[in-house]
Amino acid sequence: MTKTELIDKIADKVNVTKADAKKVVDAAIEEIMDAVINGDKVGFAGFGTFYISERAARVGRNPRTGEKLNISAFKLPVFKCGRVFKDKANK
Questions:
Q1: 32 in helix, strand or coil?
Q2: Residues 61, 27: Cα–Cα separation, whole Å
Q3: What is the pTM of this model?
Q4: Cβ of 77: how many Cβ atoms within 10 Å?
Q5: How does DSSP classify residue 77?
Q6: How far apart are CA 55 and CA 63, in angstroms?
Q7: For helices 3-14 and 18-37, what crossing angle results, to 10°?
């Protein structure tokens, strides 16, 4: 499902215009990203949690040449699904 398809489904489900649904989806995504970037966890009961995972610097290898590469530390946005979501996916 694309963002446009999501907006269409939300607009139909709650009986609002597609423009209003787009504003709500965009605002929700923006607020989730801002909160996670600022170090907060964003959780939706039964759905899941968005948070930042910090990866330490390490030495890797180029698979073609075997040459050692330094991989810098970085932050990775993560989504961990909740139990209700996981259970629905496995039915």
A1: helix
A2: 41
A3: 0.80
A4: 12
A5: E
A6: 21
A7: 120
Amino acid of residue 84:
V
How far apart CA 63 and CA 73 sit, in angstroms, is: 20
Strand, coil or helix: what is 76?
Answer: strand
**CA 37 to CA 77: how far, in whole Å?**
8
Number of residues in the chain: 91
Residue 36: count of CB within 10 angstroms of its CB: 19
pLDDT digits (tens, 9 = 90+) for 10-53: 999 999 999 999 999 999 999 999 999 999 999 999 999 999 99
Q: What is the per-residue pLDDT across 68-84, written as a single tens digit (0 to 9) for each?
A: 999 999 999 999 999 99
Q: Which two tokens stand for residue 8?
A: 């269409």
